[in-house]
Request: fold
Amino acid sequence: MTKFWCDLAWISADGNGKNSADGRHAAEDANAADDKSGAGTERGEVKSKVLIETAGGQISAVTCGVKNPPQEAVHLAGFTVPGLANVHSHAFHRALRGRTQVEQGTFWTWRESMYAAAAHLDPDSYRDLATAVFAEMALAGVTAVGEFHYLHHSPKGGLYQDPNAMGHALAAAAEAAGIRITLLDTCYLAGGFDTELNDAQRRFSDGDAARWAERVEALRKAYADSDTVRIGAAVHSVRAVPVDQLPPVVAFAAEHELPLHVHLSEQRAENDACLSRHHKTPTELLHAHGALGPRTTAVHATHLSQMDIDLLGTSATAVCMCPTTERDLADGIGPARAAHLAGSPINLGSDSHAVIDLFEEARAVELDERLRTERRGHWRAEELLHAATTAGHTALGWPAAGRLRPGAPADFTTIATDTVRLAGIQPAHAAESVVFAATAADVRHVVVNGRFTVRDHRHELVEDVPGKLAAAIGAIFK
Ligand SMILES: [Zn+2]
Reply:
């Protein structure tokens, strides 16, 4: 058993207003009516001198106001929040950072650079790169990642000896980097509506959804007993999965109760092509094939009609906002608040890893809205913290994680409050200060499964993370 004693901690309230199953602490301002997500309420509060007791990788007790902690308790100096969930990642995109900032263009021109990087990866080089990228995430406070994975086969499209070699490489990378992973194995079959795969896309495809499901079933069985790896399903987009191939993917996810993620309406061109081919928006098409629902996460959801927003909200489909990528790729600003008010839980992802900083993603959801509307205060800091933690874990199939309470996995992140950015913050405004001013560099400690992954800003399992990133990226572009 390990005990941690936090200067300050973010205690989210559950539906009945109590934080702790053993009743040692009740968060007073709980508001169950605020919970549209089914993932706990979005209310919470900052508590001081909080003792978190852990055993077997789980939180066993949370007690607030402990002035004299037990001698063996490890002091977590700063503000401790539940571990951050990075719901949408493509690890290999990290190799593009900076390189794609020298040219004009759109998402579609950026995609050509991304394909060029993808062409160089094999299971060994991808494991090395992803280990370094996931270690960067850990240093940024991330305890769980949703890896949207479609780089399945060899560059020419042939199967590796183990058809899941690339997936195993990603799972091994997360383990080496000391974070949880939901490997969202992605069905990707076409280059567009009625369009063949191009040469770069060939390695993404299993040929059809039945063969995709057969491969993913082997992966699912391989990690059935894992504490830190889960398998989820994904439809790359309505562009990349022909409509007759959607039902087998949806059915596979439903049969095994897996999270189902999908890129949705990131680009107007996708909407236009879908409307002209199917006379439906991408959201309407997914709805017509039973792909929406509480296990589903729509990634981006940038260009939506009111009907789309209503379909996502009434089905409780989650929306993953990736604002640093959306602004980097000039995608647009998604209607996150409207989707949320309609009933969609919101979570966050760093997607293309233009930066890896979940605080930046969280505040961008609010700040983008301010720029669009010329008004402030669309989102409360606690709602954005909830998106980065509880709601994110739920979308990744870890519904018990992302909160500091007994029975939850012992995953938490401590933000230093004595850095130049955060010095002087008041405990009452710790959540607002962190959401609107913290950066990844302020993360001091990260605990996953009850053990330190990051301690005093240093990765405990991966030595020299910058050096590993430089080496892995250099190998791609040599
Ligand atoms: Zn993506």
About this structure: The chain has two domains: 2-82+401-459, 84-395. Residues 88, 90, 148, 263, 299, 351 surround zinc ion (CB under 6 Å). The first strand starts at residue 2 and ends at 12.
